[in-house]
TrEMBL record:
Its cofactor is FAD. The gene is MTHFR. It comes from Homo sapiens (Human). This is Methylenetetrahydrofolate reductase. Its EC number is 1.5.1.53. GO terms for biological process: methionine metabolic process; tetrahydrofolate interconversion. Belongs to the methylenetetrahydrofolate reductase family. The keyword Oxidoreductase applies. Residues 1-49 are annotated as: Disordered. InterPro entries: Mehydrof_redctse-like. Keywords: FAD, Flavoprotein, Oxidoreductase.
Length: 78
């Protein structure tokens, strides 16, 4: 199901330690590029999913994670 996140900054590592000393590696800091969940939109999505499940319609959910490197982009389109 969908992760529950209701304004709790401890669930979003990007919000914790945002004033860090800069000692974190670039790999760790790159993980904070995803914005936090908007609670209003989150509820709308859950409601849409519930309606689709109740209606018996066949549906799917697709998540796309863009490649992080040039080599990953080449692999994606090859």
């Amino acid at each position: 199901m969908v992760n529950e996140a209701r304004g709790n900054s401890s669930l979003n590592p990007c919000l914790e330690g945002s004033a860090s000393s800069g000692s974190e590696s670039s790999k760790d800091s790159s993980r904070c590029s995803t914005p936090g969940l908007d609670p209003e939109r989150h509820e709308r999505l859950r409601e849409k999913m519930r309606r689709r499940l109740e209606s018996g319609d066949k549906w799917f959910s697709l998540e796309f994670f863009p490649p992080r490197t040039a080599e990953g982009a080449v692999n994606l389109i090859s």
